[in-house]
Amino acid sequence: MSAIEERLGQKIARLRKAAGRTQAELAERVGLQPEHISRVENGKRGVSIEAAANIAEVLGIELHELCRLHERDDPRLDALDRLLWFGSQLTAPEVELIMAIGASALEHTRRVTGSR
Predict the structure, then answer these.
(1) Does residue 1 register a pLDDT over 90?
(2) Range of the domain at 51
(3) Looking at residue 51, which CATH number applies to its domain?
(4) Which of 21, 57, 71, 116 sits 20 to 30 Å CA-CA off 81?
(5) What are the Cα distances from residue 8, in Å, to 52, 65, 114?
(6) What pLDDT shows up at residue 71?
(7) CA 7 to CA 73: how far, in whole Å?
(8) For residues 21 and 28, is the Cβ–Cβ distance under 8 A?
(9) Of 13, 91, 16, residue with least CA distance to 99
(10) How wide is the angle at C-alpha 77 spanned by C-alphas 71 and 78, nearest 5°?
(11) Higher pLDDT, 116 or 84
(12) 39 and 50 in contact (C-beta within 8 Å)?
């Protein structure tokens, strides 16, 4: 399979795990067999645009977010994907609270460590 299909499969697997779902649960929700989801996640099978849209919906993200693939392995970009998924599950006030807490914690850490 192509590198794009491999990256898409890896992203689906990461987001599925972040959502706390098994391959079987995801498959049932999108109307596919668990083996199909396994092959997609392992980069051995492509996925139709319709199936990708259904997967994105079940994972609680927009299709364009699912299709935002990285050219290389970058732990920071993977963490940002997980953060985006997490934020998409929150209400606006919850996002504001998390942002305030995160900014405060980061400011404290930088002050203590002297880093930027």
Answers:
(1) no
(2) 3-113
(3) 1.10.260.40
(4) 116
(5) 9, 11, 38
(6) 66
(7) 9
(8) no
(9) 91
(10) 100
(11) 84
(12) no
Q: Token match 């051995």: residue? A: 44
Q: Which residue shows structure tokens 């492509």?
A: 46
Give the span between the Cα atoms of 80 and 82, in whole angstroms.
5
pLDDT, tens digit, 9 for 90 and up, residues 14-61: 889 988 899 999 999 999 999 999 999 999 999 999 999 999 999 988
What pTM value is reported for the model?
Answer: 0.69
Is the Cβ–Cβ distance between 18 and 61 less than 8 Å? no
Total number of domains constituting the chain: 1
CA-derived radius of gyration, the chain:
17
Q: Nearest to residue 52, comparing CAs of 70, 31, 71?
A: 31
Count of positions (residues) in the chain? 116
